[in-house]
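notes to self, project folder thing:

trying the whole complex as one job this time. last attempt i did each chain seperately and stitching them together was a nightmare. two parts in total, labels are on each line so i dont mix them up again. if this works i'll redo the older ones the same way
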Amino acid sequence: NLVFDALMNAYTDSGFVSDAVQCFRLVKSNGFRVPFHSCGYLLDILIKSNSPVIAWAFYLEILDSGFPPNIYAFNILMHKFCKERNVQEAQKVFDEISKRGLHPSVVSFNTLINGYCKNGNLNEGFRLKRVMENTQVSPDVFTYSVLINGLCRESRIGEANKLFDEMCERGLVPNDVTFTTLIDGHCKTGRVTGAMEIYQKMLTKGVKPDLITYNTLINGLCRIGDFVRARNIVDEMKKKNLKPDKITYTTLIDGFCKEGDLESALESKKVMISQGVELDDVTYTALVSGLCREGRVEDAEKTLMEMVRAGIEPDEATYTMVIDGFCRKGDVKNGFRILKELQNGGNVASLVTYNVLMNGLCKQGQMKNAKMLLDAMLNLGVVPD
RNA sequence: CGCGACUAGUGGAUG
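result (full assembly):
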């Protein structure tokens, strides 16, 4: 038995997980005792690799051979499936918990409820909450936060508020995440005043806002164009020793861009750099998009190249924005130049990009070139719509 | 035997 244990571990450690699984099957089919230690180890590895399907299949196999079921393993697998938006499979894992003689924990419920909420099936989420209430597993702060978030995402703010109250009435104490969730819901539906009230309530109740809370508020304020208060919030967070992160800056940059205030956006970018905060793909896309919208294509292209130099490959949509920017100025030639850049970056231009160029050519009356482009598309297997 | 390990909230994006 020790031998099989060692053998399976060796396969696992060498990255030959499928051989390890085979090894397990051989041991089992030959009637030897199943090496639980190495099975557990392999299971861990499989769970950590991003293929919950394989991990789940293996888990079922070893459970069948007597491996002791463990609620954490089930929960983690459910979570992985949910992350892949595969709630159906998560539900199967959930159902298996009871079949294997365990009881779903509050985490099991919360994970599944979240999966359903993210899939737009709030009803099932609430049904599970009732199941919890009937089975000694009381909904906790996570349960409520998940459901409040689900309601918020569907703009059902009144119900979200009610659920928040229900939670408090039941003696549960909302934490920073709960408050932030509710604040975000209010912001996203334009109720920024309400959001600020919740924020005040949060402070009154002694719940400490964190970086995410502030970013959420800043986003809400930017969306209604209230940059004065947005900046005030930034100052407030600094006073509390919270350093603005890339999301804070990107939120501001995007907010300024959407307002058409490119100077402030670029100024924020400067501050960001001087503070040693890294720009990521989202930051750059916000800038490129903003510059294009304002017709500053050359600057957009510079930013695009800066992005490439920073080691971040822009995606097709980002290149296409710049191509479109040139085309709108009647400069189709430069549009095609960017197309080349796109292709050099290892991207494949698809329908939308070609349509942008096609549009540019047609608007310029370059029908012959447009026809050639159409032929090129057909040759490349890009189906025109 | 004990302990640990699992769940919720924030930014951009093309015709």
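what i see at first glance: The two ends of chain A are 63 Å apart (CA to CA).
need to look closer tmrw
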